[in-house]
Design a protein that fits this description.
With 183 residues, the protein is α+β, with helices and mostly antiparallel strands. 39% of the residues lie in helices and 22% in strands. The chain has a single domain, classed as Glutaredoxin (3-Layer(aba) Sandwich). It has six helices and nine strands; from the N terminus they run E-E-E-H-E-H-E-E-E-H-E-E-H-H-H. It is elongated and about 55 Å long. The N and C termini lie far apart (45 Å).
Length: 183
């Protein structure tokens, strides 16, 4: 059985019953869901977007599988080729091809240092949380678009290197952990 996301919003499905072409795999990669407003808002928007397109997906015989991955160290960031928090990938493609970031105060509180997190660009405007319509557009494009000509984001084609911003974040978290442990 495959569980759709942590919330079970789409129910349990037999993995053997799903044709690869009928899967919409969504990876939600994030640094923190307890403090970070951007990660929390992205998680909420993703859940709402999936609920909103659920009827369409059922009519097209598509099954959504959501993997929520807490990137809590640099080894995980490297494993998932994590470039910015939060990230949503649909069938391996980042829904925001261009990485833009701005100061994220909540992640700064988390690690005790200045941290930049993702800014989402949709229809010419910048958002700190992806608009639900952006997520829905990306899901529907995966269902109805010509996926053979879609290019994966540039960071997946090149050799991955942990971005400096994330390297600094994990170093600050580790440093704060050691300081708190010693006291």
């Amino acid at each position: 059985m495959v569980k759709c996301c942590n919330t079970g919003c789409c129910g349990d499905i037999e993995e053997s019953q799903i044709n690869e072409d009928d899967k919409i795999k969504i990876d939600f990669l994030y640094l923190d869901l307890n403090i970070c407003n951007r990660c929390q808002g992205t998680d909420e928007g993703l859940n709402e977007a999936i609920a909103d397109v659920e009827k369409v997906l059922k009519l097209t015989d598509k099954e959504v599988i959501v993997n929520k991955v807490h990137i809590n160290n640099k080894e995980m960031a490297i494993k998932y080729k994590f470039v910015s928090s939060p990230t949503i990938r649909i069938n391996g493609k980042d829904i925001q091809m261009e990485v833009r970031e701005s100061l994220c105060e909540s992640c700064g509180e988390l690690c005790g240092d200045n941290v930049d997190c993702r800014v989402w660009v949709y229809k010419g405007k910048e958002y700190t949380i992806p608009p639900k319509a952006m997520i829905i557009d990306s899901i529907l494009h995966e269902v109805y678009g010509d996926n053979k000509i879609l290019l994966d984001s540039e960071h997946n084609k090149e050799a991955y290197e942990l971005p400096e911003n994330l390297r600094n974040f994990f170093q600050s978290v580790e440093k704060n952990y050691k300081l708190n442990k010693d006291h």
